[in-house]
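User: Before I run my own analysis I want an independent prediction to cross-check against. Here's the chain; please return only the C-alpha cells and, at the end, one sentence I can use as a sanity check.
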Amino acid sequence: MPFVDLPLAELERYHPHVPEPEGLDAFWSGTLAAARAAAAPPHAARVTTALELVDTWDVTFSGHGGDPVRGWFTRPAGRDEPLPVVVEYLGYGRGRGQVHERLWWAAAGYAHLLMDTRGQGAQHGTGGDTPDPVGSGPATPGFLTRGIDDPATAYWTRLVTDAVRAVDTARTLPGVDAERVAVSGTSQGGGLAVAVAGLHPHVRAAMVNLPLMCHVERALAITDADPYGEIARHLSVRREDADRVLRTLAHLDGVHLARRAGAATLFSVGLRDAICPPSTVFAAYNAWGERVDADVDRQIVVYPWNGHDGGDALQLTRQLTWLRNHL
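Assistant: C-alpha cells:
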C-alpha cells in the first residue's frame, strides 16, 4: 500500500476548518443526561477463571436509553488499594470476546474495563454479548448508517453514549481510583476514545490509535474503504438524503469533540492507512484541547510504513510507558 494522503510535513500542520453544527453542546449534554437518568445501578458479578494473577468481573451497566451493555472488568490479583483504571473500546465488528484476550493492563498494575460493543461481535475476534435493541430506517449493511437521518437516532450516538457511561461505571467499580481514569482504543475504539475525552470531565489520559469518525467529510472524499464506504453506498442509493446525513455526521465528528478534550493524549497514525486516512487523524490531533483553557499535553507517533495496523504491539509498549507518567 503506497502513501494515501498528504505529505507528513503538511499533515503536521493540517488544521482544516470543520464547521460545528449549531446546538452541538446541547445535543450531547441532553443525550448524556437522558442516558444517566434512565440508568440502573451497574452489576458486577465475580467470575471464576483459570487465571490466577487477575481477578475478573462480568459487568453490566446502562448505556444509551438505559440499554444494558456488557463488559469485562479485571484487576491484578491481591491488590486491595485503589488503582488507576483504563477503559478500553474495541475496533469495528469486534465484541468483548474472552476475558483472557486482553490482560496487559491488569498485568501492568491497572484496573481495566473492556466495553462490549452493542450489536457487533460477529465480524472479527471471538464474539460479543451486547445486542442493539434499537430499530433503524433504511440502512446499508454494517453499522454506521443505522438511524443516520438524525443525530438523535444514529447508531454512533448510541455507541458514544455507551462509551461515556462506561467511564461513569468504571469510576464506581471495586478498587478503582475514580480520579485516575484513562481511555484507550484503536480505529472505532480510537474514535470512541476521542469522543469520550471530549465529553467526560474525569478522563485524565486518552490513548488514541488510528481513530474512526474524525473529519468525516474528508474521509468520505478520499477513501471508499469500509466503514466509510458504507456511508457512500448508502448515499449512492438515497441520493436526496445527503444534506440530512451530513448534518447528522457533523454532530458526531470527532474533530469537534477533540477540541473539547482536556486530557493528555497519545495518538498514533499510519501514513499508509486507507481506512482512517492520516489527514483525518491529524485533523483531530491538531484540534485537541483548543477549546480548553489549559496547556494540554499531546503527542503523536507516526508510522510511515504502516497502514491500519499502525504501531500494533510497539505502540502498546509506548502506551505502557507513557501512561505511567500521566496516571
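Sanity check: The beta strands are 43-47, 54-62, 68-76, 83-89, 111-115, 176-186, 203-209, 264-270, 298-303.
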